[in-house]
Amino acid sequence: MKVLYISTNFTALSHTFITREINGLRDIGVDVKLLSVRNPDTSAATKPECDLSGCKFVYPASFFPVLGGVISTFFRSPSRFITAAKTAFVNNEDSFKQKLKLFYQMLIACRFAGWIINEDVQHIHSHFAGSPTSFSMFLSALTGCPFTFTDHGAGVFHDRIGLKTKFRRASGVSSISEFNTQFYPQVADTVPTTKIVRCGLRMSDFTFNHRQKCNTPLHILAVSRIVPKKGFTYLFDGLAYLDEEGIDWNCTMVGEGPLIPELQEKAKSLGFADKVTFTGPLQQGEIRKLMLVSDMFVLPCVLAPDGDMDGIPVTLMEAMACGCPVISTELSGVPELVINDKTGLLLKPEDGLAVGKAMAQLAVDSELTAKISKGGYDWVNDEFNIKKSARRISEFFAEIASKRKN
After folding, report:
1. Could you say which of 7, 60, 165, 362 has the lowest number of CB atoms within 10 Å?
2. DSSP for residue 14
3. Which CATH architecture has domain 203-383?
4. 3-state DSSP call for residue 353?
């Protein structure tokens, strides 16, 4: 089968779960073509995790290539062009400004319709329900090729545009969690066939270091974009609790984001600025080294003021694959990964004291540390393994193709 994958940026450090899926599909013989909404992020990822040979890019969208695509697409199939144009405007969920944006994306999509037909692409799949799936939807309408998408929360939990139309026109949805699957009827009138396909890890990329006990000082690791939904202010409240209990610690924060100055100021006000290191973004290999030597990985996710929240953070999976005990919160699909006292410690959101007590518990309870270190690794290896995920999504594409033939 020949499949076109569309995503925002295949080189982004935060999107490695997509490139792993592509590699997993290619490993089992699926021919995957690539269309990226943005140009490569060379400042952040110098070594893309998958082969980008032949990848095409949506932006920048120059006038004459787009015009040429519109003209050729219209004359190739006027009915499909009109159907695609109507798709941008028929929904009743978006503002007029949003509809114009969708129509603009439809015009840009025309530039790639001929390429898809010439390449004999049989299926279009996108990651994220925002712009990548907008292009999937329009390219499907322009070419007659079925499309599916993987929802990660963004574009579904918040910042929705054309969402009901996307659900209505998609041949299926690949959901990363049971939580997301149950959430869809709240935002869409019609939900197509849905299949759970976990974001998977290539386990050979990770070394398992079975933790038997925590070190002194305690080494705490957090890896993520530094944004409200990650709940790092509650991590800092927990660090203050460790100080109160006389537990020695240091903390490494990996990532970039708008909340770094605020957190730096909070650390200063709490008197432990010298014990927190903000590294900025790091390459995957450097992050894995930190996960191998850290005593725990803490990601106290919360519901952000704008409604944004995590799906199932891949960084939690990666820490578990390294044997690093994880602490997170009962939000969205996180409990499907972090099972309390078995694969990690799971807390109520927005409770800094609980975060501090959980870190303190791991610091002194070597039996619990060893248990969840091994339990977390086993669970990720079984349920969040890219070999299993690639096979499941390949089967999903085949099921859709079979239904269309019948």
Report:
1. 60
2. G
3. 3-Layer(aba) Sandwich (3.40)
4. helix
Percentage of the chain lying above the pLDDT 70 cut: 98
CA dist 343 → 51, 117, 317, 340 (Å):
33, 46, 10, 6
Q: According to the CATH classification, is domain 2-200+385-405 in 3.40.30.10?
A: no
Q: Give the residue from 203, 219, 229, 192 showing the smallest Cα distance to 404.
A: 192
Task: Flag residues of the chain having pLDDT under 50.
Answer: 45
Domain ranges of the chain: 2-200+385-405, 203-383
> Which two tokens mark 135?
């292009």
Rounded to 5°, angle at Cα 61 from 58 and 66 = 100
44 CA to centre of own chain: 17
Taking CA atoms, 206 is separated from 285, 344, 375, in Å, by 9, 18, 16
Task: Quick: pLDDT tens for 40-52.
Answer: 765 554 566 788 8
Helix (H) or strand (E) holding 3, with range, is strand 2-7
Domains 2-200+385-405 and 203-383 share a fold: yes
3-state secondary structure 176-232: CCHHHHHHHHHCCCCCCCEEECCCCECHHHCCCCCCCCCCCCEEEEEECCCCHHHCH
Give the three-state DSSP class for 54: coil
